[in-house]
């Protein structure tokens, strides 16, 4: 993928397609940052993207870049990451993007949870929930999980369970099985921590059922891929055999035709 993006970037630069160049720079940043390829620094690609967004005064692209800068520094530089998130918060507020605002608050909450303290983190988690619309099931589910995790870090397990129960009322509209596996695992750990072994065991069983279901789904996907590969190979073989018969028939026809003269 990296080579393909680099070729596309070179092409856009030669043809002076600035929009294409900007988009590929952003894709290259995400690719390198997501794969943690530390031998290639992704930051210059993001810097090019942000510079062009500034030239266009494109607030949405500037917002996207600010959030990416914040994510880049999230695990290594609290102060810089926080500064970018706060810049992004101002931009999102100015353009009225409540969805991005909720995500910014969520990430600020996680940042504070890791570096500052849980009380400050929960203020941002609360702001995130207020920003999300009622139909944003995935985001609200994550917010409640973050709340619960914050209380769990402080060993306030009953409060953590309260927010886990709120999350349990929501069916996330994406990554459902994986999120429910996390939810049931947290339920089991919290109930065990307060000595409620019956509920801890019940949720541990639910956790295992979900895990087995995920594993079975993965296995079925692999089996489906193998079957598809087998069917494709079989089809190619049948096509090759058919073509061979056709060529043999054509050769005989030509031979017979030659015998007539």
If you had to describe this structure to a student in words, what would you say it looks like?
Helix 2 (18-35) packs antiparallel against helix 3 (43-56), helix 4 packs antiparallel against helix 5 and helix 9 (157-168) packs antiparallel against helix 10. It is built from 11 helices and no strands. The longest helix has 63 residues, at 197-259. The chain has helices at residues 2-14, 18-35, 43-56, 59-73, 78-95, 98-115, 118-131, 137-153, 157-168, 176-193, 197-259. With 261 residues, it is mainly α. Mean pLDDT is 84; it is low at 257-261. The radius of gyration is 28 Å and the shape is globular. It starts with a helix and ends with a helix.
Strand and helix layout:
Elements: H1 2-14, H2 18-35, H3 43-56, H4 59-73, H5 78-95, H6 98-115, H7 118-131, H8 137-153, H9 157-168, H10 176-193, H11 197-259
Helix pairs in contact: 1-2, 2-3, 3-4, 4-5, 5-6, 6-7, 6-8, 7-8, 8-9, 8-10, 9-10, 10-11
Keywords:
261 residues, single chain, disordered C terminus
Please summarize what this structure is.
The chain has about 260 residues and is an all-alpha fold.
Largest sheet: number of strands, sense, barrel closure: none
Specify the number of helices: 11
Radius of gyration: 28 Å
Strand coverage percent: under 5%
Order of helices and strands: HHHHHHHHHHH
As residue ranges, the low-confidence spans are 257-261
3D shape: globular
The computed structural class is: mainly alpha
Helical coverage, percent range: over 70%
